[in-house]
Design goal:
The complex is a heterodimer of chains A (about 550) and B (about 350). Chain A is of the alpha+beta class. Chain A contains 20 helices and 21 strands. In chain A, the strands form four sheets. In chain A, strands 3, 4, 5, 6, 7, 8 and 9 form a seven-stranded mixed β-sheet that branches. In chain A, strands 13, 14, 15, 16, 17, 18 and 21 form a seven-stranded antiparallel β-sheet that branches. In chain A, strand 7 and strand 8 form a beta hairpin. Classes of the chains: A alpha+beta (about 550), B alpha/beta (about 350). Bound molecules: zinc ion (2 copies).
Chain lengths: ~550, ~350
């Protein structure tokens, strides 16, 4: 730890890029495994400690000193980790125990490995004993490390460049193998020092492009045989893929991905940590991210509390506990299961979930039906059809062909989604206008559109306007989004950035739909309102005008 | 009405600073007065123009060097530990361990003992006499580093970091800022103590005071004036300069890849170091740190504490928690020595 602390200390005062590189390369050369690997992980932001948060550090000092003296000190220093590091051991700050000099010096590896096993309640005791055994620079480095804010002016790229220099390879060579290795990166250092082959660049935890369902048109039923299909609930959560494996040294690599393949591991460290403990060496599951409290799935609003957070606090984790409700298994061990029929995958999934014994994982139950009437009844009343207490979180049913293989994209035929409320679409925010009365300082009137294909290609066509259906807090957030993404202004109206690669998606609920010649889209909504703000959904996946047209009453 | 007795019977605060009516004198006054007792030579304590100045021989010498021969109409020197009657008061100077000649002043009047600390430190310094705790009823203490975040590490550790950096960057000149009175000479002594056997190159502004220290017998390492040396040839050498010089691009030009250090208690706080563009912060201070301040208050056995320049509130709060009568003085004119001496440095650099 001393050497790592010294490195961070020097980096924090070193202004030049070359100087920083030299300090890091020198450190990697002089430091042994696994210590240097954990240092590399810290510098590249690959370490996360779920319980170690600023609040825990604050609590630790609060029980040891007078609050006024702490406040004056913090005010002067301006940085929590640094303030606590400087205060530890001062007159007026209660010492936790006389520093024991019999212990071997604390290592970074010991800290990382201990913290990965420690529970929330152990944290205070551990931190206090470590702080006792370190000098001021060591305390500062420890607190920076565990609160995840090193701020020493080193990017992940620069740290990898320094490692590359160790083995005289290109930084891109490091990037190439990076996804296949995990802290403390033993195979990487072995290769850089010429003791082993280049680590395999095969990613042990890759993203596998997701398979999506098409909306069910009730006319489809005439052509479909209920015996060919398996039914499931459609959950009101967020689609999530978990991919797990091990690097050549046996270290766990686990990643969480959104349906578009964006990595979200860092946003849900508690879930990643829990799923990482599953014993199976390698697996990939497809499922729904939900907040489950006291055995019950919570409404989508609870899950939203976990989105777009800068830091994941202990409070957030305990108030909004996450769970993956799995509905597919697409890889297990060395086996790629995507080519297997769904029915077989389902059996594998049931066995996997049962064996995993993970509190963060359960299985999405099946909806039993012999004919379409039974399925329609289940969709209309999920509580009576087996969803029980979770019925409020059901937004429809899914139909999957028993023989369907896992095909990336949205193939026509194998999977259908049949939503409960037919008058619900996802649309993209296009224009915003200031509100009235107490909302006059906010952009609170929104015009939204859906996709259509024109001669010019894909474009959004406005289909309605909404100015309610959101909380004040949400309004403030949308307002910030509008201001930050304005591309043009016309009087009181702002044009908000919208396109295939950018835009905010609203789930719009409405009471009915009519044809209209006054509207460019040809349709008019009755009582549209914002049912939900889909910060997580890519604009390109909003609904198309054809979906709305299909909802029109027959002529 | 009951008369409350305490430090106020001996000392009052006037627009000019601390005043003792029984002896009709001021201590470290901010403006011209008739009788001034000066604790030490730093510019926020030793100002020019008083009618009569009483100070240690070394302080008077420093004032002469920095302020010119006519720094006061008349001056009188006083030795440590030798009491002197002034009017109805008796004063005794004791070493403060701050800089050469620095003193705390014991005033005995109206049956009470009050000590004015001036600036002081308890830590190791080969260039001046060590601080000596003096029992008193009331203690007027400085509090430059009066927050519990300030604890100065052993000087050997900081000098070790300087020498280690010299090894790591042998192709660079190590340019270290240090206040021209006291800190620079203490650094020269500490560097010698650490076994550095090459000369240290010093900025012209440090010259006169350094020679004074040497003539007083301070164990300084060999020095060379920079003006005489070619800056370009100073790779792998230690250069000492006043703090203002490390922010002067013009002056720094021509040093080979200068690595900027600064020896100051403020360097304990990272943001302070970064603000000044310091790459090698050396926490070496001539002021008491938090633990020394607390320990010294206890050592004097005082029941009343007055706190002057610095972070007064925290120390007052701490003293009150310990059941002492305590108040902040908020005296004008004592700032950060940093700023006061920067002006002095600038004058000396240009003169
Ligand atoms: Zn001073
Ligand atoms: Zn002072």
């Amino acid at each position: 730890m001393n050497r790592f602390a010294e490195l961070l200390d020097r980096l924090s005062f070193e202004p030049s890029r070359n100087g920083k590189l030299r300090l890091m390369t020198d450190y990697f050369r002089r430091t042994e495994d696994p210590e240097r690997g954990y240092a590399l992980a810290a510098l590249t932001g690959a370490l996360a400690f779920r319980h170690a948060k600023p609040a825990a550090v604050r609590a630790l000092i609060a029980e040891r000193m007078d609050p006024a003296l702490f406040a004056m000190s913090y005010d002067f220093v301006g940085d929590l980790s640094e303030t606590v590091a400087l205060l530890w051991g001062a007159t007026g700050v209660v010492a936790s125990r006389p520093a024991g000099s019999n212990h071997p010096p604390l290592t970074l590896s010991e800290i990382v490995e201990t913290l990965s096993r420690a529970g929330r309640l152990d944290l205070g005791r551990l931190l206090a004993s470590w702080l006792d055994s370190l000098d001021e620079t060591g305390r500062w480095a420890l607190l920076k490390l565990i609160t995840g804010a090193l701020r020493v002016g080193v990017s992940a790229r620069l740290a990898k460049t320094a490692v590359a220099e160790l083995g005289q390879v290109e930084p891109n060579d490091i990037e190439q193998v990076w996804h296949g290795i995990a802290p403390p990166y033993l195979p990487l250092f072995a290769w850089l020092e010429g003791r082993a082959e280049k680590p395999s660049s095969i990613d042990p935890a890759p993203f596998r492009p997701a398979m999506l369902a098409q909306p069910l048109d009730e006319k489809n039923f005439d052509d479909l045989d209920p015996r060919d299909f398996i039914g499931e609930w459609k959950w009101d959560g967020i689609r999530l893929q978990v991919s797990a494996g091990r690097d050549p040294s046996g270290a766990r690599i686990l990643r969480l991905f959104s349906r578009t393949g964006e990595e979200t591991t860092g946003a849900f460290p508690d879930l990643a940590d829990a799923l990482g403990r599953i014993e199976a060496d390698a697996f990939a599951l497809d499922g729904e991210l939900l907040v489950v409290r006291d055995g019950r799935v919570q409404p989508f609003g609870a899950l939203q509390q976990r989105l777009n957070r800068k830091s994941v606090t202990a409070k957030l984790v305990s108030e909004f506990p996450l769970r993956l409700r799995a509905y597919d298994i697409i890889a297990e061990g060395d086996e790629d299961l995507r080519g297997a029929p769904f029915e077989e995958r389902r059996n594998r999934l049931e066995a996997f979930v049962a064996n995993s014994q993970s509190p963060a994982l359960d299985i999405s139950p099946l909806v039993r039906f012999d004919d379409w009437q039974t399925l329609a009844a289940a969709r209309a009343d999920p509580a009576a059809a087996g969803a029980g207490d979770d019925a409020a979180a059901v937004e429809g049913v899914m139909l999957k062909r028993r023989d369907s293989i896992y095909t990336p994209g949205r193939p026509t035929g194998p999977w259908f989604k049949w939503k409960r409320d037919p008058f619900n679409i996802d649309a993209v925010l296009m224009y915003a206008q200031r509100g009235h009365g107490k909302r006059s300082s906010f952009y609170s009137d929104y015009t939204f559109g859906v996709w259509r294909t024109s001669e010019a290609g894909e474009e959004l066509v406005p289909v309605g306007k909404a100015y309610f259906g959101f909380t004040d807090e949400e309004l403030a957030k949308i307002d910030r989004h509008v201001r930050a993404h304005t591309i043009e202004k016309f009087g009181p109206v702002r044009v908000v950035e919208h396109g295939l690669n950018a835009g905010l998606v609203f789930e719009i609920a409405f009471e009915g739909l009519n044809r209209s010649t006054r509207h460019k889209s040809g349709v008019a909504m009755r009582f549209p309102r914002i049912a939900r703000i889909r910060w997580d959904k890519p604009a390109a996946e909003a609904d198309r005008i054809e979906t709305l047209e299909a909802m029109l009453p027959p002529t | 009405m009951t008369q409350k007795t305490g430090a106020a019977d001996v000392l009052t605060v006037t627009a000019n600073g601390l005043y003792c009516p029984a002896g009709d004198f001021h201590i470290d006054p901010a403006r011209r007065v008739a009788n001034a007792l000066i604790t030490h030579g730093h510019s926020d304590h030793a100002r020019p123009g008083h009618q009569k100045v009483l100070a240690t021989r070394q302080t008077l010498e420093i004032m002469r060097l920095r302020l010119g021969d006519h720094f006061a109409d008349a001056s009188q020197q006083i030795a440590y530990r030798e009491p002197l009657a002034i009017g109805d008061a008796r004063v005794t100077f004791f070493p403060a361990g701050h800089v050469l000649g620095s003193a705390q002043i014991l005033i005995e009047a109206n049956g009470r003992r009050v000590v004015v600390s001036g600036d002081y430190k308890r830590a190791h310094d080969p260039t001046c006499e060590s601080f000596e705790p003096v029992r008193c009823d009331a203690f007027v203490t400085e509090a430059t580093f009066g927050l519990p975040v300030f604890r100065h590490p052993p000087t050997s550790q900081e000098i070790g970091r300087l020498l280690q950096s010299m090894q790591l960057f042998p192709e660079r000149a190590h340019v270290v800022g240090a206040y021209s009175l006291g800190k620079a000479q203490r650094m020269l002594a500490l560097i010698a103590e650490a076994g550095w056997d090459r000369p240290v190159f010093i900025h012209g502004a440090l010259d006169k005071i350094t020679e004074l220290y040497r003539s007083e017998g301070a164990p300084l390492c060999d020095t060379r004036k920079i003006a005489a040396a070619d800056k370009k040839k100073l790779a792998g050498e230690i250069v000492l300069c006043p703090p203002s010089a490390i922010s002067s691009d013009l002056w720094l030009r021509n040093f080979p890849e200068p690595r900027i250090g600064f020896a100051s208690g403020w360097m304990r706080v990272r943001a302070r170091a970064r603000q000044r563009g310091v790459e090698l912060p050396l926490v070496v201070s001539d002021h008491a740190d938090w633990n020394e301040l607390c320990a010294t208050i206890a050592d004097t056995g005082c029941s009343e504490v007055w706190v002057t320049h610095g972070a007064e509130d925290a120390l007052v709060h701490w003293a009150r928690m310990r059941g002492l009568a305590a108040k902040p003085l908020h005296l004008l004119g004592f700032g950060d020595e940093d700023e006061a001496d920067a002006v002095q440095d600038a004058q000396e650099t240009t003169s």
